[in-house]
Amino acid sequence: MAKKDIDNNDSTVSISQAELDGTFDGEKADKAADKKIVKKPSATKEILPADQALPVKLLLIPLQGRPIFPGIFTPLMISSSDDTKVIEEVCAGDGYIGIVMLKNETENPSVSDLHAVGTIARIIKKINLPDGGLNVFISTLKRFRIRKALHATTPMAAAVDYLDDEEDDTFEVKALTRALLSEMKEVSENNPLFSEEMRLNMVNIDHPGKIADFIASILNIDKADQQKVLETVNVRQRMEQVLIYIKKEQELLRVQKKIQNELNERVEKNQREYFLREELKSIQEELGTDAEGNATDYQKFKKKAEEFHFEGEIKETVDNELEKFNLMDPNSAEYIGTRNFLELVTQLPWNDKPAENYSLDEAKKILERDHFGLDDVKKRIMEFLSVRKLKQDAKGSILLLVGPPGVGKTSIGHSVADAMHKPFYRFSVGGLRDEAEIKGHRRTYIGALPGKIIQGLRTTKTRAPVFMIDEIDKMGQSYQGDPASALLEVLDPEQNVGFRDNYLDLPFDISDIFFILTANTLDSIPEPLLDRAEVIQLPGYIDQEKIEIAKRYLIPKNLNKNGLEKNQVQYTKEALLMIAEEYAREAGVRNYEKSVDKIHRKIVTELMNEAEKKAEEAAAKAKKAKEAELAAKKAQGEHVLTQSEIDKLVKANRDLTQSEIDSLVDSRWKLSQGDIDLLVKKNKNLTQAEIDKLVSVKRESEKVSAADFVDRTKKYTIDAKALDKYLGKPVFDESEIKKADIAGTAIGLAWTSMGGDTLLIESIAYPSAKGGLQLTGQMGDVMKESAQIAINWVKEQVLSKKIKSEEWFEKNIIHLHIPEGAVKKDGPSAGITMATAFMSLLTGKIIKGHLAMTGELSLTGQVLPIGGLREKTVAARRNGIKTILIPKANVRDLSDIPDHVKAGITFIPVTRAEEVMLHAFAGNGKTASLSETKSVKKSAVKKNAQAERAVKSGTLKAAEKKSMQKKSSRNADGGKSSAAKKDTSRREKSVSKKIGVKSSASKKGAAKAKKPAVKKGAGKSRKGK
């Protein structure tokens, strides 16, 4: 460290490096002070010995705590680095330092921030601490007053005047001395803080002023009062002040002793900690003070509760909990539980009820903006919102959105919340087995929490948010309760006005919440729960809708996600359709989005691989240029620093500023001669050779970033060929097209939570000693019953027509199988399909090509309505079906199917199984007319008679054109007929001859067949999820 001199008038204190490095010793410091301090006439009144002459200019240390009085030996902790340097300099000199208390605490104090009066002290011993601080032991000597600041900031120095005690009448001072000693002895006897050693030291002090100083230093009084005592130089006045403080201490001790005696009578030993806190509280009440102010938890909770203006049961419960909380021990387990309860109560929106002030026009625009298609869903939501706004009453607002995964149920909830300008809260009950998740736990349990409903209100901070409860069809039951039953109270408008959460245990009105429930299917939802909601079905997306969703939402969103430019990747219509048909054949668009994401990731990988190669080439080129530049400079006699030499130079120079370091390593900067001179002056460790190298400082080229070389102008076109490259082989190819081209088979239509699908029914018969019906293919109970009904109806028909005998049924087993045996199947809608398969098996006839059917069969032969006709139609179209037999009761559902989906498909409504057989086995590809269908009478007897004639007629017709059917069957197998080509070459029409069933269909015919599928593909906007 550089030397620093402090001028004390004519005397000089010199601090050397050797003294700083050594251990400070008080005796050596005294001798050093005798040599280095030249005495001058003191400003003080008394004449001091030569070895106690005090400097009139001092380095100052600011104190943030209490002031230190003269005549005391005490330790002093120094943590500030600036103060540490001051102590080091003082220790290297005469050892005298000025201790002055700060007026107000500040980070960078100056002399003006100090009190005028302080204490001079001599440092007796210094101990270095591991954290860089110091622990010094000082002996305080005398008061001083700051006369003039010599250095206002750290290190602070000032010229001082020493203050002598002013003594008045000796008799009065003696009386005050005796009073002080008497009071202090009494205090020390009642207060264990004053030890015997303190009392002995106090008695041994021989000067009245020092007695007052000592007592003031150990009394528990405010630091401002202590500073006032320090600034009082008149001994009598000082003693009077201290005597007043002792009297206050005595009074406080008396009150404390009184309270202690009262509490000791009723407090047990195991309540010691509780007693101490009660004692502190009682002391504060007696003195009229509150150490913690008004910011206690109790006052905060009480103030908040008063703002809610609780009434009745709620007010009584909250007041009782507040009083109990006020008297509790904070360390008790019950304290935390009560505090959590009061915190919950004061955070719930008891009084907040916003009006229904949303705009219906804006709500409609938001729904149109965020969702494509789903016109019926949007219409019903708008009707729902219109009623809410008209009534200004949110009670009973419960929507149930039912649809396959990925169709946008959750996103609709978000859009509704945005349209209504209300906060949105979502939680899932899928797999939930504990009703406490809905209604909360009892507070008696450790770790109890409120239920999801109360938690959501606490989060949204309003009584009328939009709540979405996801996956209500997947709730379970256990010994812990039934969550579905718990939801009944939540969703019932008559009960939720006074909903009671188990944790809160207070009535809370949740009728203003707008509940939106979601489910994939209605089958597993309890009827009472279903009865409380307005059901809105969300059908799966057809291919054209998926294409529009991809173009408007999925592709732009995913391009941004993967860091690609908006117009960098273009998709052809054929590619978008292929993704929907061959890679994402589901009701929703999640797999579609995954496919798009996969394409973009692979494109980014290609771009980055190219960029890495360019970056390596650029780095090699830059390195070569740099080497050539260095060689040229060396040839001219210049030396250019390498990066390692620059690093070594910077490391060697500890005093460089950041800007100087930057100038060294910046390749665009060349140091001027002035910079070099400054660097050399500051850096004492540089050799001459290193100084010479500073004439020309350059930095080696940094390794370039590959991201800088990405070609963002490169365009990608995703077509059918590119899909094979990026997505691999199709997940669903042409082999998925199901055909009923042999006797005993039929095509049915199925509907699941994942969308529609085609169902191939297969049946065979084989001899057996015991007849019967064998069913395989993971059928559920309902489907097994349908199969039994179908075989019984067909058996009755073939026996009455003598096609088969009773003996044949006794000696043969009929085996019905539904392929994809690993997939579970259930439901009654395959009834007529199984009956048709049985009839085809027993008669040996093949059903008409490109025919599918759906409908429930009754034991008397009636065809009953089914669900999911829209999704089934989409699946039928995908499978090349041209004719669909549907229950007559489902004709009303045809209006829900888009025209471009129905285009090219003939829907035949049927009411009886006999009609199904007529159309299924109609020869030459012709179908029975509706007039034939209507000719079936309502009477059961007449229906059976007509059915018998219809079967006979159909049999004769089939027999007459048997050769034609065989030819048609061969055409279907070989893929040679033009009809088969049109029905099964959808991929060829959309993409190329490579995809789909190979045929020689003309381009004109393919275009003509394609037209209806895309005629009305556009629609309103919708998000992908």
UniProtKB/TrEMBL annotation:
Q: What Gene Ontology molecular function terms does this protein carry? A: ATP binding; ATP hydrolysis activity; ATP-dependent peptidase activity; sequence-specific DNA binding; serine-type endopeptidase activity
What are its GO biological-process terms? Answer: cellular response to heat; protein quality control for misfolded or incompletely synthesized proteins
The record's section on InterPro entries has: AAA+_ATPase (IPR003593), ATPase_AAA_core (IPR003959), Lon_bac (IPR027543), Lon_bac/euk-typ (IPR004815), Lon_lid (IPR054594), Lon_proteolytic (IPR008269), Lon_Prtase (IPR027065), Lon_prtase_N (IPR003111)
**Protein EC:** 3.4.21.53
Q: What subcellular locations does the record give?
A: Cytoplasm
Compositionally biased region (Low complexity): 993-1004
Which positions, given as ranges, span the membrane? none
Q: Which residue range or ranges hold the Lon N-terminal domain?
A: 58-250
* PROSITE patterns associated with the record: LON_N, LON_PROTEOLYTIC, LON_SER
Which parts of the sequence are annotated with region: Disordered?
928-1025
Ranges annotated as biased composition (Basic residues): 1005-1025
Induction (free text): By heat shock.
Say which enzyme class the record assigns. Answer: hydrolase
The UniProt entry lists the main location of this chain as cytoplasm
Which residues are in the Lon proteolytic domain? Answer: 740-923
Q: Which UniProt keywords apply?
A: ATP-binding, Coiled coil, Cytoplasm, Hydrolase, Nucleotide-binding, Protease, Serine protease, Stress response
Q: State where ATP binds.
A: 403-410
In the UniProt record, does the keyword Transmembrane occur? no
Which NCBIfam families does the annotation name? lon (TIGR00763)
Q: Which PANTHER family match?
A: LON PROTEASE (PTHR43718), LON PROTEASE HOMOLOG, MITOCHONDRIAL (PTHR43718:SF2)
Q: How does it assemble?
A: Homohexamer. Organized in a ring with a central cavity.
What is this protein's function per UniProt? ATP-dependent serine protease that mediates the selective degradation of mutant and abnormal proteins as well as certain short-lived regulatory proteins. Required for cellular homeostasis and for survival from DNA damage and developmental changes induced by stress. Degrades polypeptides processively to yield small peptide fragments that are 5 to 10 amino acids long. Binds to DNA in a double-stranded, site-specific manner.
Q: What is this protein called?
A: Lon protease
Give the organism the record lists. Treponema socranskii subsp. socranskii VPI DR56BR1116 = ATCC 35536
Which gene name does the record give? lon
